[in-house]
TrEMBL record, chains A, B, C:
Coiled coil regions, renumbered to chain: none
Protein name (Swiss-Prot/TrEMBL): TOBE domain-containing protein
Pfam families: TOBE
Domain of life: Bacteria
Keyword Metal-binding set for record: no
PROSITE patterns listed in its UniProt record: MOP
InterPro entries per the UniProt record, alphabetical: Mo/tungstate-bd_C_term_dom, Molybdate_resp_trans_reg, Mop_domain, Transp-assoc_OB_typ1
Gene3D superfamilies for the chain: 2.40.50.100
Domain (Mop) ranges: 2-68, 73-138
Record's keyword terms, sorted: Molybdenum
UniProt key word Transcription: no
Length: 139, 139, 139
């Protein structure tokens, strides 16, 4: 299976908090960062996830935001610091590649955002990903 | 590879509109419905997608909205009519299963939404999925 | 139309930037805030959107993030300042209601985020919504 999902970060489950409908899964990426995924409780059961499970965190490019400033007091759990390695701009949207510890992240953001933030190769940024946007794959 | 992504609908690519950064891919599901996915241009190239390609459309449950009324004048491209087959409610969130032609769709929506719409097993609904939330997998 | 989508904000289209696959639509909400929606080019054509069109911006609760700190240098286009009016917490997830100019916004975020940000009724926050998460309805 080959996925259109650009962002695939490997790591190990470090903890799970199950709710009735949803569950939060904490992952330590091989790059050293911590990531939280909010998935259905059913998915956790189906995948047999537990502390120690090897997983890949999957995130669609359209779900990745970028910040050039400090990120404090933000509900967004996942923050991967990195450096812009490339920008491809269309009329409305742009695709921005960010090198992070242990891999690369692609963000599809508006062209306006690229201009406002002055993003270009070499710009230091933090990739922000809401927990509800992180999917998980095993093996 | 096993995915936490609950919604996986198989079909065939019927057309692609490439932009610079993004591309829209139209798919005819085996259930007969048409689906549009907005993915990065790069993903289309990497997956070698073309009219006729067999794909699976992947949609995270948190990206599925439900409607109990008619849906007109809506930018959301993907609309799968079906019937609720089960509701699991937590304090804040709920997981709703919907039987659609050719498969089943899970929607993770707020508990408030379930109450407001009066959703229960047997309720007729339309599952709504924004194109930017659809990922694609080949083979 | 009865939708599970909690957040529906009315306004008027002020501008459209069409790309090949996607388009960005700018909206002035009746509450006075500006909003950007990134939707498919096809949706703009189908809905016949143009400057002056009356629309409702639809945003699923799971797509709304909250900030208690300053939001500068952020790619997320849509920022609605407001005040928390209620918090419903489950084990994994929480639903937070925020009063904003001209309406109310619901954010489904992790329970951890609520605790870390110390959110409670009366907390001043900014609701953050990525443009790709905004859908549009006419009429």
């Amino acid at each position: 299976m080959t996925l259109s999902i650009r962002n695939q970060l490997s790591g190990t489950v470090t903890g799970i908090t199950p709710g009735e409908a949803m569950a939060t899964v904490r992952i330590r990426l091989y790059g050293g960062q911590d990531l939280t995924a909010a998935v259905t409780r059913e998915a956790v059961d189906d995948l047999g996830l537990a502390a120690g499970s090897a997983v890949r965190a999957l995130v669609k490019s359209t779900e990745v935001a970028l910040s050039t400033g400090p990120v404090e007091g933000l509900s967004i759990r996942n923050r991967l610091p990195g450096t812009v390695t490339g920008v491809t701009a269309g009329e409305a949207m742009a695709s921005v590649k960010v090198g992070v510890d242990g891999g690369e992240v692609t963000a599809a953001i508006t062209r306006d955002a690229v201009a406002d933030l002055g993003l270009e190769t070499g710009s230091p940024v933090v990739a922000l990903i809401k927990s509800t946007e992180v999917s998980l794959a095993t093996a």
